[in-house]
TrEMBL record:
Residues 199-235, 275-287 have a biased composition (Basic and acidic residues). This is J domain-containing protein. PROSITE patterns: DNAJ_2. GO terms for cellular component: nucleus. Residues 78-135 form the J domain. Pfam families: DnaJ. Residues 199-287 are annotated as: Disordered. It comes from the Eukaryota. SUPFAM superfamilies: Chaperone J-domain. InterPro entries: DnaJ_domain, DNAJC8, J_dom_sf. Gene3D superfamilies: DnaJ domain.
């Protein structure tokens, strides 16, 4: 199961790591991470700085535009971001927010907006993902690991500055900038998750295809074997019938062997004088 495999990988992200609160999540093998030159990721990094303070004040049109803004591919990977919630939001908050937002972006409420139906489906998918207890826990673990990774990054930067004898002040000391840093890290990890998910799905599809081909080959060979056995049985019956026909009629009507004439000596006696003295009667004993 692809989701369970990914859940096990993501669970490793929350394990303690030498002096830090958590290790950095790596859902994609080294060297296969999302390329930094990805234009959609660049758009996301620019848009992530435009945080919306009051989601409740947004109209349906605003929400639809938000779900299709530049970099939305990465924003929408995080179901909490789709609903405008923190990853610390409860399931009840998720349900309440979904009810309100689904009404705002519903196609019936936005008849002139062609993207309303897609936006509604995005919101619905995010809510369904978080309403499932196992998937909700999985998403929370990713977000928590991303937050821990962002904190670890800040601590490393401060440590480096102190080692160089400089002031350890960093931009992330500002709560707003730290929030943006966490948001970026969360989206990066969800991007890695989606990439890893596609890799597993591709591998799973290949395995199913291979199994299907092997099953088809097996069934073909079994059918071929049955056909050969059937043909052999059919020919065996013909052979048996031919033998019976020959034994009952062909063997009796065939040409007879000529009787071998006993060789005699010039004087008319046989070569075996003993048997010759007995006459022809001794031949009766042969029968």
């Amino acid at each position: 199961d692809v989701f369970r495999a990914l859940s096990q990988e993501a669970a490793l992200a929350t394990l303690p790591c030498s002096g830090m609160s958590a290790a950095v999540v790596r859902l994609v093998p080294a060297g296969q991470e999302v390329a930094p030159e990805d234009p959609e990721l660049s758009d996301f990094l620019q848009q992530v700085q435009q945080l919306q303070a009051d989601m409740s004040a947004m109209t349906g049109e605003d929400h639809i535009a938000r779900l299709f803004r530049p970099g939305a591919k990465y924003f929408n990977m995080n179901p909490f971001e789709v609903l405008g919630l923190s990853h610390k939001a409860s399931v009840d908050e998720v349900k309440s927010t979904y009810r309100k937002m689904s009404i705002k972006v519903h196609p019936d409420k936005n008849p002139g907006n062609e993207r309303a139906q897609t936006a509604f489906e995005i919101v619905k998918a995010a809510a369904e993902r978080l309403e499932d207890e196992e998937r909700y826990s999985f998403c929370v673990r990713i977000c928590q690991a991303a937050e821990d990774a962002a904190v670890k990054k800040v601590h490393s930067a401060k440590k480096k500055l102190r080692k160089e004898g400089q002031d350890d002040a960093v931009p992330e000391d500002d709560p707003a900038k730290m929030e943006m840093s966490v948001k970026v890290m969360i989206s990066r990890m969800f991007a890695e998750f989606e990439q890893r998910k596609k890799q597993l799905e591709s591998r799973d599809a290949e395995q199913k295809k291979k199994a299907k081909e092997e099953q088809a080959e097996k069934e073909f060979m079994e059918a071929l074997k049955k056909r050969e056995e059937k043909m052999w049985e059919k020919s065996r019956q013909k052979r048996v019938q031919g033998w019976r026909s020959w034994s009952t009629s062909g063997a009796s009507t065939g040409p007879k062997r000529p009787k071998v004439k006993e060789e005699r000596r010039p004087d008319g006696k046989g070569y075996n004088s003993y048997w010759d003295e007995r006459g022809e009667d001794y031949k009766k004993e042969w029968r």
